[in-house]
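Treating backbone geometry as a discrete language has practical consequences that deserve illustration. In the encoding step, the backbone of a single protein was reduced to a row of integers, each denoting a local shape. The amino acid sequence and the backbone structure tokens for this protein are reproduced below.
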Amino acid sequence: MTKNLLGLSLCAVALLGAAGCKDLTECAVDADCQDRASALGQALFCSENMCVVGSPRGSLCAEVYPANSPSDATVVGVLVNTVTGSDLLRLQAAKLAIDEMNMGLSAAGKPPIALHVCETSATGADMLKSYQVLVNDRNAMAVLGPSGSGNVSLISAEVIHAGVPIMSWSASSRTISDLPGTGLFFRTAPSDLLQGPVLAKQIAPAAISANSVGMFVVDDSYGTGMRQAVLGANSMIAPKPSLTYKEGVGTDEAAAVKSLSDSLTSLKAQAAPQVLVTISNLFSDKVLTGLVTYGISTTPPTQILMSDGAKSSKVLDLLSQGTAAEQTAMKTNLARVVGTAPGVDKANANGIYNGFLASFGARWPGVDPRTSAFSAYAYDAAYAVGIAICSAGEVTPTRVSEFLLHLNNFQSADKVQVGQSSFLNACNRVAASAGLALQGATGVVSFTAHGDREQGLYERWTIDTTNKTFLSTNVN
């Protein structure tokens, strides 16, 4: 019964009792909620004739992929921000994996997998609401995503309550390892405990000995964890200046942009160090725009050292924005950027990564997945979940977790592979035994009992400002 009908029912009861009647309908469209929203100081939307926080429930998770998925398809949710975030390439990589696996499932006479795609960019409340829609309304067996450690924190209590595992391709904060519950918080991205020392090695010893290292860090679990990992890797690093800022999505973005602007103003008021370690995510392009003049005239110019959150197409887009003079200044600015990120297994003898690139290019001509640090990680994440579903027989969230944890031995010589031709074989072997590892596009994937990736590859990246692309070299 809808809220409207409920309101009518109450009116009917009231009339029978000779009492008055109160219409419980609050709204018909979002605009009807504006007065209440102003009074409460937060955005409200009309959902089932009620003004609610976050997007209306019915508007969340609007896409099902493939569009013609049958009713018996196994539901896998995916939480993405393709509007203000960098998830479009990651979503495309996951869809590619679903296409490949569904061909194998069809050949084996098994139900296909259907991705229920939830866009979470409208408001800060949409991440949690979308997860709840996937679990409670769509009967999802697992959820891919979300990007970002802060987003995992937003939904962590509900994941524990619902028991439906997530598989993030980019959440790397060490704090995720401390969340209660085993076999619920999987991630193909390795922990920042591993990336921090790699990032610290990129800082010139001369800058450390001169006490000329600064830090500009997003104030969330990702930024805090990466900062701790960098400083923990080298006790001689004493960052000065050291500032933080906020990031946000949807209706939270205006306050977050002001936080960034205020922090940049404070940063520019202080002497530029030889190296500025900048840990950013959604606002990486805004951060780099704000740093165009900072430390550029020193000798040598301040080096900007960044982490994986900055490796996105939005950063490359800066080279094409503004006047000719502004583009020249941005080119000079980005030429001094050096970054680290989880890498990919380019040297694998079976050519799995190159096969991923070729398949992606055939599926989406003209789109380069290498402009995001985590496209291949999303591909491996989808395959890991799909293999667990295929292996489980009777599919439940608990059994998906159980069979994901069969991929639990990084040192194993017995590896199953991602890819269309290897999928059914991988399903059969994971169904039969544990102690395996997954040979993915990103290297060897295996999980601890909690769901962390055991080991990972890393890369050092720079920006080719002429060709507007990233250049990467594997390091560890």
The chain has 16 helices and 18 strands.
